[in-house]
Design a protein that fits this description.
The protein is an alpha/beta fold. The chain is built from nine helices and eight strands. It is elongated and about 65 Å long.
Length: 257
């Protein structure tokens, strides 16, 4: 028996690596191309395929970790349906409902790790929240056994909850990282290294570990310091998009203090 990973991207790379390390089952990698499948499989010393006809038949678990569009295509793939043959199939997407997989198998679920991933940095899953959902209690129990092998934080989350978790994660991670990139560019123009901000960023994160983020908000907007806000906005005169972002976020903070 084996765990089949369909996908070779950031999430698939991290999940396949930790499953290889923490479980006793064989790992099989299936990629869209021969190159991507072989690259990940060689790292894990695992078998691989890139033609759906060569996917393992009747494996214990199929994990689809691809883009949302690709997931939609795979959910209608007759070859994949034949290979799964009513075994448990799950996806790892944050914003896709669980029942997208019901056309592939009578046993399906979601295994959504709430974290940002990169192929080139493998994450320790021990404290990562794993959001699970399944179409039956039996399948949920099976999924949770896998989940507890890699993480101490396993949560039962339905599709409606998960889409809002994914939305919140975009604000908390993707948007905040974009703000870091903007800050880096502002500093770079004046030949200042970004690392000057790292202690500030670290303290910001530390504060929200034990406090509501809204209650520890600081800065000119929460103080209604319009003179400082106007000065900052003026510095951004030649960057219309950044000026709009600055003014909009400042107003949002001021209105919600």
């Amino acid at each position: 028996m084996s765990i089949v990973f369909i996908g070779t991207g950031n999430v698939a790379t991290n999940l396949a690596s930790v499953f290889k390390k923490k479980t006793n089952e064989n790992i099989h990698i299936h990629g869209r191309t021969e190159r991507s499948a072989k690259q990940l499989a060689e790292k894990l010393q695992a078998d691989c395929s890139f033609d759906p006809e060569n996917l393992p038949y009747n494996s214990s678990l199929y994990i689809i970790s691809v883009t949302d569009d690709a997931l939609s295509e795979l959910s209608e793939n007759p070859v994949l349906k034949e290979k799964i043959d009513n075994n448990l199939v799950i996806h790892t997407a944050g914003s896709v409902p669980v029942d997208i997989l019901k056309s592939l198998s009578g046993n399906y679920g979601v295994f959504y790790p709430l974290q940002t991933f990169s192929k080139y940095k493998l994450i320790d899953f021990k404290t990562i929240p794993l959001c699970l959902e399944a179409n039956t209690g039996f399948n949920y129990d099976k999924l949770s056994k896998y989940a507890f092998q890699i993480s101490e934080d396993v949560r039962k989350i339905n599709s409606e909850q998960r889409k809002y978790i994914h939305l919140a994660a975009v604000f908390a991670n993707n948007f905040s990282n974009r703000m870091f990139a903007i800050a880096e560019n502002i500093l770079k123009e004046k030949q200042i290294d970004f690392d000057i901000l790292l202690p500030l960023i670290k303290e910001t994160v530390e504060k929200i570990k034990n406090n509501s983020p809204g209650k520890v908000q600081t800065g000119p907007a929460v103080r209604n310091d319009q003179k400082v806000i106007d000065k900052h906005s003026e510095l951004l005169n030649k960057y219309e998009d950044l000026q709009k972002i600055y003014n909009f976020v400042s107003k949002n903070i001021s209105n919600n203090k």
